[in-house]
Amino acid sequence: MRLNEIGEHNLIKRITRKAKNRNVLVGIGDDAAVIKTGKGKMVITVDTLVENDHFTLKWFTPKQVGMKAMEINTSDIGAMNAIPRYALVSLCLPKTTTLNFVDGLYKGIYSVADKYGIDIVGGNMTHGHEIVVDITMIGEAKGKIPLRSNARPGDYIISSGNLGASTAGLNLFLKKKSGFAAVKKKHVEPKAKLKKAYALAKYTNAMEDCSDGLASEVRNICAQSKCGAVIEWDKIPVSRETIKAAKAIGLESKNFALFGGEDFELIATVPKKHLSKVKGFVVGRITKEKKIYLKKNGKKEQLEKAGYDHFA
Amino acid sequence: MRLNEIGEHNLIKRITRKAKNRNVLVGIGDDAAVIKTGKGKMVITVDTLVENDHFTLKWFTPKQVGMKAMEINTSDIGAMNAIPRYALVSLCLPKTTTLNFVDGLYKGIYSVADKYGIDIVGGNMTHGHEIVVDITMIGEAKGKIPLRSNARPGDYIISSGNLGASTAGLNLFLKKKSGFAAVKKKHVEPKAKLKKAYALAKYTNAMEDCSDGLASEVRNICAQSKCGAVIEWDKIPVSRETIKAAKAIGLESKNFALFGGEDFELIATVPKKHLSKVKGFVVGRITKEKKIYLKKNGKKEQLEKAGYDHFA
Q1: How far apart are CA A68 and CA A71, in angstroms?
Q2: What integer is the mean pLDDT of B172-193?
């Protein structure tokens, strides 16, 4: 059997084993692992950018590649209500890579490191046939950690901001559509939403950053919380610019929001009593029934397609 | 300028910046970073295997790939006199990868994890054109950490065991030479030498695991300790089997020891007063003069070539 037959989620399930060390508070399956260290809690995550998959030098500058690699990890740390502190940068680079690329990459890495106060404490360099930027990030938990497994039936599903812009930007590039600079920028310069994450954390049951699309994040939360959800098509927040950009290339922006990903907003589930205290867009509800529905034009249909699969 | 012109070591120097957080006790440049966590110290390292560079499925089983990926990181943790605790596994896999490969890989990863008591707490999976296995490992410092920067003129340079076998094994495979199973096994099943590392740590000034060859490790130690060294050709320890294997393919086993790497013995510098307390082979001395010499047939020549360079 090949990986494109089994799929990413089943594969992760297959290789996951429960941790034995009791200092492992959260293992595989959330935005980051959580480890007890003396009185504190450390969160650790790793994420990878592969050339011509997660980025292309056709429309990313080297600096933007470095920035993206750091922001996507910072986003995972933020979704655990933690402060990013340290990072290790592991690179595969073809021997023909230019010094210009590496200098630009690190300019991007350090610019984000400086913004958030992160130290680059280590890494590795080796050669390969394609550029792979793999960053491990370590953060310090601020307090309560809103896990994916903690959603409760009745919770409101919140998006901390508009979705779909990054995928709209990608499609503008792919279709060589001029204009829409602001939408394209959302693709090449995604930002972690640390402040939004910290503000939400106090009031949420479950939280996750939106890297693989709303449908995928809701599915992750539901799978781990053993519940289901109804997402309301009309309520999916998409900016005017994104709608306009999607129309210009004949595509549906809400599908970008559902299945595209890389917006790095927070998807959180909030109990009714806290709803007035949080900022964000309500996009649906958590249900007891363990299925995920999309409510569109008054009809409720089960959501089959559920976000980006790396091996599909 | 391209990376093959600047070289790995200059590149690392170029991208390294001093850490700002005072909890970073050791940053880029040693076997692992060291971070203060409350009362303890955490060490963190990352290392990568790329298909057809660090391994090939022509002579590695998937399980051996997983084992190697874990052992080489464990070796770095050991060289810092630390206990390996947690690992994150970040994979790039072609979509056509078989489930059989992934199952075997994780069998190897978990077999080493179980041997040392390491928990796999996270990771990432994405697709790429070649298999990349990137492991981040976190350990807990046992006590004194023998840094690369701490060698002193007059120190004896020690290898904790025989060198050159892994590269001899690789060359046997490359030349399709039958026999020499034990030497080949050193290449496909390298082992971290944790016990040797812990035993040495107390008495060494500097220590490093031998991943890129004796010449490279001595050069690293000298560069960071601002000193030089004399390595004695006659004293470089190579097993009889390795000598025999090298001869059978018409190559010089001591060159494997000097420039080959992947033996994962410890290279340590030990002050005279502790020499009688350590087990290992004396291979040379640390000198005040900041040059590295090889003494061979009574002649002292400067060692120009200095180990594996990933971009050469």
Answers
A1: 5
A2: 98
